[in-house]
Every structure is written in C-alpha cells, then in structure tokens.
C-alpha cells in the first residue's frame, strides 16, 4: 500500500520536509492543528496547553496506565497565520534531543482537498539522524515507564563523550 | 522472505520498539530486558527472536550470557530509518483525516 505521506530527507542535511495531501477542505486541516481536543485524538497525547497565536506556547504530555509521564514536549509559537502557517519550536523534556524548529505550511488544493508541508530544522545533521533512528522515542504512544530513565542514560553517555 | 517488510512489521509493535530503545544505550541479556516489562518472559523471548531474525538486534555471547544489542548497520542508510518515521506520520495523518471527515458530517 502506497503511503500518502512523503518525507524528503537528503543525506547530510540538517532538515527534512514532510508533505501530505488530505481529502479535507483547508479550514478543517488547519482546525485539526489548533483545537486541543482534536489534536489529542490524532496525536495520541494529552494537550496541556496550546495557544494559537504569535508568542503563544504549547505543551503535550502522555501518561502510561500507572500515571507516570512517559512523554512530555513543549515549544513556543513564533508565527501564526490561520489557514496558512504555523512556525513553532519543539522540545522533548528530559531527553538529550536538542530543540527543533518546525515550519508548518497549509495550502488549499481544491474546495475539498488541501496539503500540509512541515519543514523540521534540527540542530545538526547528527541530531536529525539520531532522532530519525529512534522514531519510537518520539512516538507519543510509548506506554513504557522506563523510557525516561533510558533517555537519561542516553543523555549521560552523550555527556561522557563530550568530556 | 521479504526482509524489508519484516523490519517495518517488527517496529510496528510497541513492546518491540520499547526493547529497541532499551538496548539503544547498552547491550543487555534477555533476563535484564524482560525485567523491564510486566509481560511474561516467553513473550519477551518471542519479541527478541523476531527482532533478531530481521537483524534489528544482534547477539553476542559473553561467557554463559547472550547479550542483545542494536544492529547499527541495519539502521545505517537513511532509506532504512526514515521509513518507520514516515509510517508514524502517515498513521497520525490518516487518523486526522478520519476525525475531520466525521467532524464535517456532524456539523
């Protein structure tokens, strides 16, 4: 089955671009990115805060069955133009992964179809590739309470290497 | 056997993703890996077998113990590691599309 989502990640570049066309009017595609209760459903995480405005901020959190935090991420919104674009930062809390910058662009194709393009800029080529190699670290459905510990260990290893 | 497809099927399971994440930082024995899960030991063994068969995990014998580690070679090429990432976003966007189609009808 052909996936509708495309990823353009060139070798040796510190960014990548995710694109996807939807059988949805532009307004609904945009709405799905700013209404907390809708974001929660398709991202599979709790939305603690999501301010759809310039200089706004956001925070997501996922708990496991025992109520432990297995994932928490936050960022600030730099640009917010309804039905056109959102520019924001993304940072996973308690992990060694550096903050990343995301440019979301929304585009109308027809009255009933639309397209999103997300350009994610990483701190370095290595940071990008490391993040890609652990998509499950980013996977918001990680119901595993050791994740945080594991990532802390990873952090320590990086720390050791840096010394 | 379609090895490529097997890799993605292997990664599709949340427990197997958790196992890969655990051994990403250090080699571990099957017992040490299993102690991180509430799942029965044979179930964890089955997961380890699948991950080893599709070469995402490598095995190394040290004395009596077998240690499992991430097979970095398997995840070397961008084409190899971008696919699970793409799959993750595709799943999310498919959900988004379904949710908003229902939302549209309800209005």
TrEMBL record, chain B:
Keywords: DNA-binding, Transcription, Transcription regulation. GO terms for molecular function: DNA binding; DNA-binding transcription factor activity. InterPro entries: ArsR-like_HTH (IPR011991), HTH_ArsR_DNA-bd_dom (IPR001845), HTH_MetalResp_TranReg (IPR051081), WH-like_DNA-bd_sf (IPR036388), WH_DNA-bd_sf (IPR036390). Residues 1-90 form the HTH arsR-type domain. It holds the Pfam family HTH_20. CDD domains: HTH_ARSR (cd00090). The keyword tRNA-binding does not apply. Gene3D superfamilies: Winged helix-like DNA-binding domain superfamily/Winged helix DNA-binding domain. NCBIfam families: HTH_metalloreg. This is Winged helix-turn-helix transcriptional regulator.
